[in-house]
Design a protein that fits this description.
InterPro entries: Gliding_Motility_GTPase, P-loop_NTPase, Small_GTP-bd. By secondary structure, this protein is α/β, with parallel strands linked by helices. It contains five helices and eight strands.
């Protein structure tokens, strides 16, 4: 039996929950590259300055490798490097922010430019409680930036929700692999 390694990139703007998601999925065993934030316009004490990394052994011997990207535009040169060889990506969006203030569109653009066939799931974080699976003020943004991508509310601290997002992404990856095998 062949062991497969699955490279997954977690992207999104500063403060959306990328490091938290990687830490949750690896049960706190990820390597993080956070440093004190020097941007006074951002209300966050620490920020990722390179990439976060964690791996998970899956049933059957496969391995999941998670790479959390830095969210700030000044680190955008790292995004294509992390996307190289990736099988999928989760793009996190801070649902509490104004849609016009997010850099998530730039992350999706980087994927479109450097990995256009990459399966992607969008997780909307910091939604609060709602019966609507996607906050109404984000629906227009999703329609414009990600009309064909699955989106779900996601608390990156919650293991069950993190696994749901990963299951959704892995389902897309498996569908792509079956489609490619048929060609």
């Amino acid at each position: 039996m062949t062991v497969r390694e699955h490279k997954i990139v977690v992207m999104g703007p500063l403060g959306a929950g990328k490091s938290t998601l990687v830490q949750t999925l690896t049960q706190g065993k990820a390597v993080v590259t956070e440093a004190r934030n020097t941007d006074p316009s951002v209300g966050k004490e620490y920020t990722t300055v390179a990439m976060d990394y964690g791996d998970i052994d899956l049933p059957g011997g496969d391995r999941l490798r998670l790479y959390g990207s830095p969210g700030q535009e000044r680190f955008s040169y790292i995004w294509p490097i992390l996307l190289a060889g990736a099988e999928g990506a989760i793009v996190l969006v801070d649902g509490s922010k104004c849609v016009n203030a997010t850099l998530a569109g730039q992350h999706l653009q980087a994927i479109a430019e450097h990995a256009p066939t990459l399966p992607v799931v969008i997780g909307i974080t910091k939604c609060g409680r709602t019966d609507d699976p996607v906050l109404p003020h984000w629906q227009a943004w999703l329609g414009e930036h990600a009309p064909h991508l699955p989106a779900l509310p996601l608390d990156p601290r919650d293991m069950k929700q993190a696994i749901t997002a990963m299951d959704l992404l892995m389902s897309q990856i498996e569908c792509n692999a079956m489609t490619t095998a048929d060609e």
